[in-house]
Amino acid sequence: MSSLQVHALRLGPGAELLSSLRDFVDQRRLRAPFVLTCVGSVTMATLRLANATADNVNEVLELSGRFEIVSLVGTLNPEPHLHVSLSDSRGRTVGGHVLGNLRVFTTAEVVIGEARSCCSPETWTRRPGSKSWWCRRGARRRKPTETPENHE
């Protein structure tokens, strides 16, 4: 049996994409889930842009209108970390880190991969003195309320 499991999710008009993905992952108790692909459209989005400076650490872009989902990538647990690219009616594209408020316009069809044999983020730990994370095979899974910062 393959260690990769594939799940499909179709959301209808008005659904909020980020919270729907969280619910899907939680209800099915998926291990190491990630977005394989997504097609669809949204009417709203809240994105954090990648232009942080010392004076501006979290510029947020609030979008409203009709946008095609050009790309959606990222991991889905323990907390979702998603990046999206959206194009408007003239083909102009914008992208960033998803903060939420991705309101489905017509549909959003998401294919989710579950890497069952991989080390899921719940077992990641930090090496002493390092900013990097590593997988400790056989490590206990953290409770959903634990964060990497307080995980021993």
UniProtKB/TrEMBL annotation:
Domain PPC: 1-136
InterPro entries with a match to the protein in the record: PPC_dom
PANTHER family: DNA-BINDING PROTEIN, PROTEIN, PUTATIVE-RELATED
Protein name: PPC domain-containing protein
Species, as recorded: Neogobius melanostomus (round goby)
